[in-house]
Amino acid sequence: MNPRKLFQRLAQGHLQNVAFRDMVRLVESFGFEKARVTGSHHIFVHRTTRALVNLQEVGGEAKPYQIRQVLRLIERYELLLEDEP
Fold first, then answer.
1. pTM of the model
2. What is the pLDDT of residues 70-84, one digit of tens each?
3. What number does CATH give the domain 3-76?
């Protein structure tokens, strides 16, 4: 899914049934980079804020509470969606 469309969907509160790969693409579109993977935990760090994001895949989907955490970080640090290539 297009990161911009996914972000609009999530901002409206639709946090269920979000494909894990789409969520990874979204956090990377906001400037996060994968730092490491430990078991099922995919840890991303933002290059300017030092904010950490932890995402776990369960049945091919991202966990809703982790999606809420990402949305709060985006709002708190006023992160902007980078233009798609």
1. 0.93
2. 999 999 999 999 875
3. 3.30.920.30
Domain ranges across the chain: 3-76
> 22's torsion region: left (phi>0), alpha (psi -120 to 50) or beta?
alpha
- Report in angstroms the alpha-carbon separations of 12 from 9, 39, 68: 5, 31, 12
Q: How many Å apart are CA 80 and CA 82, to the nearest integer?
A: 6
pLDDT per residue as tens digits for the range 7-59: 999 999 999 999 999 999 999 999 999 999 999 999 999 989 989 999 999 99
Q: Compute the distance between CA of residue 23 and CA of residue 71 in angstroms, rounded to an integer.
A: 11
- The 8-class DSSP code of residue 19 comes to B
* 81-to-4, 11, 26, 71 alpha-carbon distances in Å: 8, 13, 8, 12
